[in-house]
Design brief:
Belongs to the PNP/MTAP phosphorylase family. The chain starts with 34 loop residues before the first strand and ends with a helix. Helix content is 28%, strand content 21%. Bound molecules: 1-O-phosphono-alpha-D-ribofuranose and guanine.
């Protein structure tokens, strides 16, 4: 028989290399640069923070992480200063379609903010601490509040594609096996060894978000529920989704949970939302399947409403926090 070659496999589809090469992850220990398999030292993160602060005129108060296909949230930022991840020393790079790969500094409703137009996921090959490194950097440059957005599958049968789910809680599935962004030595300058997570998603912010939904006349598409993150990159099986449904999960994604854990560890206040980009396939009779193109399309479809929603949130959170310092 003739030997097979690479082109015979997978319908001879051409190999498409990743958009950008991943930097090597040091798994052996410190490389002499403050970077170890368990994270960057406080000093290394401080260097990154100071590099960023040297490029901007205002310290941001609020950080925003834009989910898949939701990068246009950063387009509401005025006086924008954009810094590509590739130009930031020791910063990871975005490798996923729909994640631009830059920080955008500027103002929303007059409030200094920084937005991550592109996040890092575990499935890209980054350990969880590295996925969350920007959260610590944002803390060091002065943010007090983190707004996290994600694209997610809707598991709650009442949810429809295009709904916005305010996250009231999460289930850290990856954490059940010990994979946690805080794994490893704890630096008390960030936070305690054993941080609580029972009030991870700020109750006042959630109330404000529901008021904003009414003001914008979108309360019929705004929900509140429980998010979970799986490692990805594959979407879930029917059996997996039915198990998650049984334990009370409303939306499923591949991000956010570890970012929120890292944020709460260093005492940031958190608001998070899921844009429901697809209905989870919980029966073998359903014909459709989840796909990333649909996820990005729904992000585009909802970009105007999300921009208004997040802008108002920034404004109202700032007023709330000014009255309760
Ligand atoms: O969580 P974000 O980055 O919004 O993206 C979600 O959408 C992608 C799958 O389409 C995955 O990366 C998943 O995590
Ligand atoms: N894990 C997961 N992530 C998503 N991101 C967008 N949709 C989905 C989904 O259905 N499952």
């Amino acid at each position: 028989m003739a030997p097979i070659n690479a082109n015979d496999i997978n319908d001879a589809k051409a190999f498409v290399p990743a958009k950008k090469a991943l930097p090597e992850v040091d798994t052996e220990g410190s490389n002499g640069n403050g970077i170890t398999s368990k994270g960057y030292s406080y000093e290394t993160l401080l260097e990154i923070a100071n590099f960023l602060l040297s490029r901007v005129s205002d310290k941001p108060h609020i950080g925003i992480i834009c989910g898949s296909g939701m990068g246009s949230l950063a387009e509401t930022i005025s006086d924008a200063v954009k810094i590509s991840y590739e130009d930031i020393p020791n910063f990871p790079v975005s490798t996923v379609e729909g994640h631009h790969g830059q920080l955008v500094f500027g103002k929303i409703c007059g409030v200094p903010v920084v937005a991550m137009q592109g996040r890092f996921h575990y499935f890209e090959g980054y350990p969880l601490w590295k996925c969350c490194l920007p959260v610590r950097v944002m803390k060091l440059i002065g943010i007090k509040t983190l707004i996290v957005t994600n694209a997610a599958g809707g598991l709650n049968p009442n949810y429809k594609v295009g709904d916005i789910m305010i996250v009231k809680d999460h289930i850290n599935m990856m954490g059940f096996s010990g994979n946690n962004p805080l794994h490893g030595p704890n630096d008390e300058r960030f936070g305690p060894r054993f941080p609580p997570m029972s009030k991870a998603y700020n109750l006042e912010y959630r109330k404000i978000a529901k008021e904003i939904a009414k003001e914008l006349n979108i309360d019929d598409i705004v929900r509140e529920g429980v998010y979970t993150c799986l490692g990805g990159p594959n979407f879930e099986t029917v059996a997996e989704l039915n198990m998650l449904k049984m334990v009370g999960v409303d939306s499923v994604g591949m991000s956010t949970v570890h970012e929120v854990i890292t944020a709460r560890h260093c005492d940031l206040k958190v608001f998070a939302l899921s844009l429901i980009t697809n209905e989870c396939v919980t029966s073998y009779d359903i014909i459709g399947e989840a796909n990333h193109e649909e996820v990005l399309d729904v992000g585009r479809m909802r970009q105007d409403v999300l921009r208004q929603f997040v802008s108002r949130l920034v404004d109202r959170i700032t007023q709330l926090d000014a009255n309760n310092p």
